[in-house]
Amino acid sequence: MFEFAEPLNRLIEELRRIPGIGAKTAQRIAFHILGLPAEEGDRLAEAIRDAKRSVFYCSRCNNITHVDPCALCVDPSRGDDVLCVVEEPFNIASIERTGVYHGRYHVLLGALSPLKGRGPDELRLGKLVKRIEAGAFKEIIIATNPTVEGEATALYLVRVLKDFGVRITRLAVGLPVGSDLDFADQVTIKKALEGRTELKD
Ligand SMILES: [Zn+2]
Question: Could you report the per-residue pLDDT of 8-46, keeping only the tens digit for each?
């Protein structure tokens, strides 16, 4: 059976571990890297090493950062009255790209998932509860994913946070913009109906 040179094989195997990268893509990326000038290859390797070594989770919000607390936690232009709770650090980027949210964040670093052995204890909500107890938050926006796990996590959060006297909201889920009702599945239409908003003139 044909096999690539051992160092190339190793590179392909490492790339294949990345979620979403299959055997063919891993091969293509590996050959691309091999074709790079030496200094570009070194830059890529350094970028990976530096990112791994110098970033960590923010002690306040669990965002990925290289300073503690992270930039979002200390930004004086952001409001301290709203807290948006997301599952993963990269979810922050999706919300930030909209440019409409200017409050603080909290990253759960996961969601409830009995199948993956993540129950309420593994969610470690202590840090979040402390922030809500100490903070001036008037509203908590639960922005967990609209998946079974994300929904279960949202319901659990509501139960844990209901006695703190803060308003708890959930991101609306529904129809994709620019799409047609015909193409939406039942669950999406049901969620869209439940999350309908009033139209005002
Ligand atoms: Zn932070």
Answer: 999 999 999 999 999 999 999 999 999 999 999 999 999
Mean pLDDT across the chain, nearest whole number?
92
Q: What is this structure's pTM?
A: 0.81
Question: Which residues span the domain enclosing 86?
Answer: 75-198
Residues 151 and 111 in one domain: yes
Could you tell me the distance, in angstroms and rounded to a whole number, from the CA of residue 53 to the centre of ligand 1? 18
pLDDT band at 150 (very low <50, low <70, confident <90, very high): very high
**CA separation for the pair 66, 37 (Å, rounded):** 29
Closest CA to 139 of 173, 178, 94, 171: 171
- By the CB criterion, residues less than 5 angstroms from ion ligand 1 are 58, 60-61, 63, 69-70, 73
Q: How far is the CA of 73 from the centre of ligand 1 (A)?
A: 4
Q: Into how many domains does the chain fold?
A: 2
Residue 109 CA to ligand 1 center (angstroms) comes to 13
Could you tell me if 148 and 183 lie in one domain?
A: yes
CA of 8 from ligand 1 middle (Å) equals 39
Residue 62 CA to ligand 1 center (angstroms) comes to 6
185 shares a domain with 147: yes
Distance (angstroms) between ligand 1 centre and the Cα of 104 equals 8
Cα 101 to Cα 79: distance, rounded to the nearest angstrom = 9
In angstroms, rounded to a whole number, what is the distance separating the alpha carbons of residues 140 and 125?
Answer: 14
